[in-house]
C-alpha cells in the first residue's frame, strides 16, 4: 500500500470513528508505529487531523458537502467558461504536456480545447476526469492519457493507488487544478481524502501550477488540504480577491488573472 493511500484510509477511519489510535493503525496496516506517527504528523500538517495523545482526531469546523459534477457544471457556468478561455493562454501551443484535474471549471477548459483543435498541435493531456478524457478524444491532434483507478461517482474522477502510480510516472509543463475552496490560512482544499491525494500528486509532477477557481471558492475551507498557496504559480478567477486572501496571494508571488 502506498503512503498516500494509507493516509487517506487513516483520515477516513478518523472521520468515521471520531478517533484513531497509533497502535491500532500500525496493526491494521502492518507497519511500525513510527510509520503511523509520521503519517499523522503529515496529515496534521495538511490540516486533515489533529494529533492527540496516542493517536489523532478529525478536525471540526470544515465544510464536507460535495455537490455532484452535473450540478456544479450549471453553477456559475458563464464565469467558468470565461476562466477556461483565459486559461487557454497557459496551454503550450506546440507539443506541450498538461495535466487536467477533474472538476467543472477544468471541464470547461477541456471543452474550450475541443473548440480550438488546431491551436494546440501535438498536445498531450493527462487527466483523471472521465468526461474530460472522452471530450478530448474528439480531437485527433491531442493525445489523451486517462489515469486508471476507481471512479468516484460524485466527481466522475479516478482515484486510488492505480491513479497515483500512473501519475507518478509523468512530468508535464502545466497542471490545471480545480479546488473546492481557497483561503489565506489553509490554501487549496477538497472534501475527499482520496481525491486530495491525486491533486497533490498533480502538483508534484508539473513545472507550472495553475488553479482555476471562481469567486465562490474564496474563503472556504474543506476537509483536506492538497496544496498550500506557495505551491501555486497562477490563479485564474472571475473576480479580484480581497482582504487576507489577496494579501496572501501577493505574499506568495502568485499571478492573479481575472477573466
UniProtKB/TrEMBL annotation:
<dbReference type="Pfam" id="PF00455">
    <property type="entry name" value="DeoRC"/>
</dbReference>
<dbReference type="Pfam" id="PF08220">
    <property type="entry name" value="HTH_DeoR"/>
</dbReference>
<keyword id="KW-0678">Repressor</keyword>
<dbReference type="InterPro" id="IPR050313">
    <property type="entry name" value="Carb_Metab_HTH_regulators"/>
</dbReference>
<dbReference type="InterPro" id="IPR036388">
    <property type="entry name" value="WH-like_DNA-bd_sf"/>
</dbReference>
<dbReference type="InterPro" id="IPR036390">
    <property type="entry name" value="WH_DNA-bd_sf"/>
</dbReference>
<dbReference type="GO" id="GO:0003700">
    <property type="term" value="F:DNA-binding transcription factor activity"/>
</dbReference>
<keyword id="KW-0805">Transcription regulation</keyword>
<dbReference type="InterPro" id="IPR001034">
    <property type="entry name" value="DeoR_HTH"/>
</dbReference>
<feature type="domain" description="HTH deoR-type">
    <location>
        <begin position="3"/>
        <end position="58"/>
    </location>
</feature>
<keyword id="KW-0804">Transcription</keyword>
<comment type="function">
    <text>Repressor of the lactose catabolism operon. Galactose-6-phosphate is the inducer.</text>
</comment>
<dbReference type="InterPro" id="IPR037171">
    <property type="entry name" value="NagB/RpiA_transferase-like"/>
</dbReference>
<protein>
    <recommendedName>
        <fullName>Lactose phosphotransferase system repressor</fullName>
    </recommendedName>
</protein>
<dbReference type="InterPro" id="IPR014036">
    <property type="entry name" value="DeoR-like_C"/>
</dbReference>
Amino acid at each position: 500500500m502506498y503512503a498516500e493511500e494509507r493516509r487517506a484510509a487513516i483520515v477516513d477511519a478518523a472521520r468515521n470513528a471520531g478517533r484513531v489510535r497509533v497502535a491500532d493503525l500500525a496493526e491494521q496496516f502492518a507497519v511500525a508505529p513510527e510509520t503511523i506517527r509520521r503519517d499523522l504528523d503529515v496529515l496534521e500538517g495538511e490540516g486533515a487531523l489533529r494529533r492527540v495523545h496516542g493517536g489523532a482526531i478529525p478536525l471540526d469546523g470544515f465544510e464536507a458537502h460535495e455537490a455532484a459534477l452535473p450540478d456544479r457544471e450549471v453553477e456559475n457556468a458563464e464565469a467558468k467558461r470565461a476562466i477556461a478561455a483565459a486559461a487557454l493562454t497557459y496551454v503550450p501551443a506546440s507539443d506541450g504536456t498538461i495535466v487536467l484535474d477533474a472538476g467543472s471549471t477544468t471541464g470547461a477548459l477541456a471543452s474550450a480545447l475541443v473548440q480550438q483543435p488546431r491551436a494546440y498541435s501535438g498536445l498531450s493531456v493527462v487527466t483523471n476526469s472521465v468526461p474530460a478524457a472522452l471530450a478530448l478524444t474528439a480531437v485527433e491532434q491531442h493525445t489523451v492519457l486517462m489515469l486508471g483507478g476507481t471512479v468516484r461517482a460524485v466527481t466522475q474522477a479516478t482515484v486510488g493507488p492505480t491513479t497515483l502510480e500512473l501519475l507518478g510516472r509523468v512530468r508535464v509543463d502545466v497542471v490545471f487544478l480545480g479546488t473546492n475552496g481557497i483561503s489565506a490560512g489553509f490554501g487549496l482544499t477538497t472534501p475527499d481524502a482520496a481525491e486530495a491525494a491525486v491533486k497533490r500528486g498533480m502538483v508534484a509532477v508539473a513545472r507550472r501550477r495553475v488553479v482555476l477557481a471562481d469567486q465562490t471558492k474564496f474563503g472556504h475551507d474543506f476537509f483536506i488540504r492538497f496544496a498550500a498557496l506557495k505551491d501555486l504559480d497562477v490563479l485564474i478567477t472571475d473576480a479580484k480577491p480581497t482582504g487576507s486572501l489577496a494579501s496572501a496571494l501577493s505574499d506568495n508571488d502568485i499571478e492573479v488573472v481575472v477573466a
